[in-house]
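Service request form, structural biology core

Requester: graduate student, group of Dr. S.
Request type: structure prediction, single chain
Budget code: on file
Notes: please return the result as structure tokens.

Sequence provided:
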Amino acid sequence: METDPDIVSEHDLLNEEEEHRGARLPVFLFPTGRGNRGKTLFTRWVVEDARNAGREVIVADGDCTNQTLSAYFPDASSPSSADQLTVTKWFEKLIETQIKSRKSLIVDFGAGDRTLKHAAYDLSLDTFLSHHEIRPVAIHFVGPDPDDLAYMQSFETGSLFAPAATIIVYNQFAIPPHVPPSAAFADSVAESAVIQQILHRNGEIVAMPTLGCSHEIERRRLGFIDAADGQTNGDLPPLGLIDRQRVRLWQAEMKSRFSNVTSWLP
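Core staff response, request fulfilled:
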């Protein structure tokens, strides 16, 4: 397969700059997906993992109806109202802050929000961020339901927001227990033109493991490291020893499965 020369040059430009600096570039990470596909769980993990390693990340919670990230990260930025003009100005200010501060940025919008799509169209966002030595990254969370691909397609159509660094995350939690992950996703990979388009430009597919006790961590509003260390919030007891081990193993598995795209993450 031939590769689009424009994509190669953008990708290589960022890689060359990264190699010159001797460190990963700041990342603009934008997760998309329908509800219950693991988007918020991943976001919490990647921010916590980056900050635990000493990498600074700006967390932006743009979901005006359900600001989950703000409950875990008190420093998360959010718009002052759900008015579209207010949200747009807030988002544009975030981008300028990232460029000036050279910190990675992860933005979580609610399902159906069109703020990034408008910005991508108005600003040619991929090119704009790359010009300022920020790596744009799209990460799409899907299950085996073909309707999940509609979110992905809406960003890929006309290369609206289709950076060279694009990750498709298959959430194993969304698969029926009796169905092997390879079987659940095989048809969608083989038959989906949008997935093939992403793979053609060297995008990556990652299968995200299930964390069986995630609901207990959410009840306590804990970070994963704190949960594994036996901390708690409120009147709820700490996780039991077995669940703490599950959290540790899940964290290690997440690092392993996302190891091929480490430079695309904050």
